[in-house]
Write a structure and sequence with these properties.
With 345 residues, this protein is an alpha/beta fold. It has twelve helices and 13 strands.
C-alpha cells in the first residue's frame, strides 16, 4: 500500500481572495492538484492559511487591463477548475465570468464562493462569517443562554464555505470527466452552514431540539457534554454521552452514581453540573489527564494553539508540520492507495 495524492494532474486557478477561497485552493493543492493563485502583487500576497509548505504558485496580474485579463483567461483555458470569491457580477464585468470561460474551456468547473449566493435580495450585500451563520439559524444556538457567541469563522467561511465548494467542484469534475460538460458551482456560506446543522433542524422538527441556548444536550447545558475548569485554571472537555462512558467518567472523578441525581432528568442537570465542577476543581489539568489516560471516558484536555502540536496523539500522527519555526496543520485527510491512482480527469 503506497501513500499518494489523488488529484495529481488536476489544474486549479484561484482568483486571489480571502478566507474560504484560499483555503479551498489549499485543499486542492494538498491533495495533489496544481494550483495557480492570481493576485495583484505576488510578493505581498501573504495569507495565514497558505504557509510556505503549501505548493501554490502565485502570479501577478492586473485584471483591470486587457493584457491581464487575457493572461488570466489563458490560464483558465487549460484549467480543470476555477475558484473565485467576488460579489456577483464582478467577474462578468472583468470579462472573466462563466460564459467567457466556457467559451475557451467547455469542461471547466467554475467555483463561485459567496456568503449569500449568486441570487436573492442579499446577493449584493457585504457580510462576514457572523452574518452568514446568523441567517442560517446556526449562530442563534451557539453560546451561553445570555447571548450568541460567534465560533471563530469555522462554521461559515471554512465549514459551510470552503469544504462545500471543494465537494461541489469535485462532484462536478466527475461529471465533466464522463460528459465533457463544465458547470458552475454556486456555493453560499449561509446554505453550507445550514446544511451542517441538518441534525439540529431534524431534531427541532421532531420537537427534540430547543431554540433556547444551553437547553440541549450538545450545547453546554448537560453535565456529560461540556467543559470543566481545573484547579490551575485550565479546562477539560467531557463528552460522556453514552452510559458506559459516563460511568467511566464518574469512576475517574471518584463519584458514585448511586449518590448522584439521575442524569436522564433534565431538571437535575444544574445540580449535577455543580457536583462535577467541584470535582474537577480539586486537581490540575495534568492530574486529570493522567487519571483519564487509561479510562475510556471521553474526557480530554482542552489544548491551546500552542499546546496542540505537542500532544502525543498529534505528534504520533504527524498532524502538524513545522515551517520557519512555527507549527501549521498538516494535510488532511490521509490517502493510502493499494494501486497508484491514475490522474484525475
Amino acid at each position: 500500500m503506497s501513500d499518494s495524492r489523488p488529484l495529481k494532474g488536476v489544474r486549479i486557478v484561484e482568483f486571489g481572495g480571502i478566507g474560504p477561497g484560499p483555503y479551498c485552493a489549499r485543499l486542492f493543492a494538498e491533495w495533489g492538484a496544481s494550483v495557480t493563485r492570481i493576485v495583484r502583487d505576488a510578493q505581498r500576497d501573504v495569507m495565514p492559511m497558505l504557509p510556505e509548505h503549501v505548493p501554490i504558485e502565485r502570479v501577478s496580474l492586473d485584471l483591470k487591463s486587457a493584457s491581464g485579463v487575457q493572461s488570466a483567461m489563458d490560464l483558465v483555458a487549460v484549467a480543470d477548475g476555477v475558484i473565485e470569491g467576488f460579489r456577483p457580477g464582478v467577474m462578468e464585468r472583468l470579462g472573466l465570468g462563466p460564459e467567457d470561460a466556457f467559451a475557451r474551456n467547455r469542461a471547466l468547473i467554475y467555483g463561485r464562493m459567496t456568503g449569500w449566493g449568486q441570487t436573492g435580495p442579499f446577493a449584493d450585500r457585504a457580510g462576514h462569517d457572523i452574518n452568514y451563520i446568523a441567517l442560517s439559524g446556526v449562530l442563534n444556538g451557539i453560546g451561553p443562554a445570555e447571548r450568541p457567541i460567534p465560533p471563530w469563522n469555522l462554521v461559515g467561511d471554512f465549514g459551510g464555505g470552503a469544504m462545500f465548494l471543494v465537494a461541489g467542484m469535485l462532484g462536478a469534475m466527475l461529471n465533466a470527466r464522463s460528459t465533457g460538460e463544465g458547470a458552475v458551482v454556486d456555493c453560499a456560506m449561509t446554505e453550507g452552514a445550514a446544511s451542517l446543522a441538518s441534525f439540529a433542524y431534524g431534531l427541532h422538527a421532531e420537537g427534540r431540539w430547543s431554540d433556547k441556548r444551553q437547553s440541549n444536550y450538545l450545547d453546554g447545558s448537560s453535565p456529560y457534554y461540556r467543559a470543566y475548569e481545573t484547579r490551575d485554571g485550565k479546562w477539560m472537555a467531557v463528552g460522556a454521552i453514552e452510559e458506559k462512558f459516563y460511568a467511566a467518567l464518574l469512576a475517574g472523578l471518584e463519584l458514585s452514581s448511586d449518590s448522584l441525581p439521575d442524569r436522564a432528568n433534565k431538571s437535575n442537570w444544574p445540580r449535577l453540573v455543580a457536583i462535577l465542577e467541584a470535582a474537577f476543581r480539586e486537581r490540575t489539568r495534568e492530574d486529570w489527564e493522567k487519571v483519564f489516560s487509561e479510562r475510556d471516558a471521553c474526557c480530554t484536555p482542552i489544548l491551546s494553539l500552542a499546546e496542540a502540536p505537542h500532544h502525543p496523539q498529534n505528534v504520533a500522527r504527524g498532524a502538524f508540520v513545522e515551517v520557519n519555526g512555527a507549527a501549521h496543520p498538516g494535510s488532511a485527510p490521509r490517502f493510502a492507495f493499494h494501486v497508484a491512482p491514475a490522474a484525475f480527469g
